[in-house]
Amino acid sequence: MRKKIIITVIVIAIIILGVLLNGKNIFSNTEDSKSTQENVPITQQNLTIDEKVDQIVASMSQTEKLGQMVMIGIQGTKVDDDSLYMLNQYHMGGVILFDRNMESPEQVKQLTSDLQVQSNEKVPLFIGIDEEGGDVVRMAEKLTPPPSQKEIGATGDIEQAKTWAIKTAKSLKEMGINVNFAPVADVGSNDKRSYSTDTNTVIDFVRAATKGYQQENIIYSLKHFPGIGKGRVDSHVDSSSIDVTKEILMAEDIIPFKTIIDENGPNDYFILVSHLKYPALDEEYPASLSSKIMTDLLRNELGYKGIIITDDMEMGAVANHNDFRSIGVNAVKAGADIVLVCHEYEHQQEVYLGLLDAVNSGEISQERIDESVKRIIKVKLLHLYQ
Questions:
Q1: Rounded CA gap, 253 and 328, in Å?
Q2: Looking at the predicted structure, is the pLDDT value of residue 374 above 50?
Q3: From CA 323, how far away is CA 342, in angstroms rounded?
Q4: Domain range 45-383, its CATH number among 3.40.720.10, 3.30.390.30, 1.10.3720.10, 3.20.20.300
Q5: pLDDT at 38
């Protein structure tokens, strides 16, 4: 009996010594579990989506955060030193592709794969394209392009919008593209880009198209808020104004956007903002630089909580009247989450460096940057990991 007591005392002493030496209870795997959990990527941890977003954003440097807020175009059909420099030096969060980048579906698939792998970012890239239909398509000889939205609308068959959105989404996803800058939600644009000149018809067809994209889990982008259907000057060339009352805009041009906002969650789509001026909404600034339009109207009045992206900042409507160092700063201060710069590396760098200077000087607050980056990361977690 005494011998058993002595053995028990020795065993207890060994256990206590083990606890003191190892700093943990050897009968518990709590620390091991915690260590294992820490080694699991945040995206795979047992956390809520918002907890994952917060952890990823907290782990990012300032330069990584700002990169998420710029989407760029690249040159060539392969990842080269220049595009790698833009992705790795400036941590750009997205790439938009044009015909200059596209030779065949197989080549595009390799390009998008290489971009994702070689970007070395904490989250995947948005890789986007303008595949609206009609005249605004890419690689038309190698893909089956959708008809123009005007042609689809003219059929009177609302399901055609959904059918073509599904076909388009499938072909884009097969090539590694995860964002389509469509559908056009403008009412009565003076080309083939609108479904109709009738507001209710546009609503019906846009709604159907969005359901097609949602079914295929591809991010879509309503454009061009608050509507360019009444415009008569191509914003690629220069600025112009839509001189109608706010009441008319709200009753006609803005209704398709409002409908999608009211009927859908905010994380399936972007809203792309135009470069036109709307004096009834903002007498001074074009929509893409206007806090009255992006923040007061789109965010606060219409209640949109998703990603706001500008149209290409190299378009004449804004590029002819602003320098690139300030243009991105002004867009973000006005409410944009992503600044789109489609062509020249120099301009993309200027936009990024302007944002960096503005944050370092306190012109843009850290809270404002984190607000946008959290929106971006949340959409990426929801759509790009499936």
A1: 26
A2: yes
A3: 15
A4: 3.20.20.300
A5: 58
Reference 371, options 69, 86, 12; nearest CA is: 69
Range list for CATH 3.20.20.300 in the chain: 45-383
Q: What is the pLDDT of residue 234?
A: 56
Q: Which amino acid is at 133?
A: G
- Three-class SS string for the chain? CHHHHHHHHHHHHHHHHHHHHHCCCCCCCHHHHHHHHHHCCHHHCCCCHHHHHHHHHHCCCHHHHHHHCEEEECCCCCCCHHHHHHHHHHCCCEEEECHHHCCCHHHHHHHHHHHHHHHCCCCCCEEEECCCECCECCCCCCCCCCCCHHHHHHCCCHHHHHHHHHHHHHHHHHCCCCEECCCECCCCCCCCCCCCCCHHHHHHHHHHHHHHHHHCCCEEEEEEECCCCCCCCCCCCCCCECCCCHHHHHHHHCHHHHHHHHHCCCCCEEEEECCCECCCCCCCCEHHHCHHHHHHHHHHHCCCCCEEEECCCCCHHHHCCCCHHHHHHHHHHHCCCEEEECCCHHHHHHHHHHHHHHHHHCCCCHHHHHHHHHHHHHHHHHHCCC
Cβ–Cβ < 8 Å for 219, 256? no
116-139: pLDDT as tens digits: 999 988 999 999 999 999 999 999
Is residue 149 over pLDDT 90?
yes
Per-residue pLDDT at 150 exceeds 90: yes
pTM: 0.88
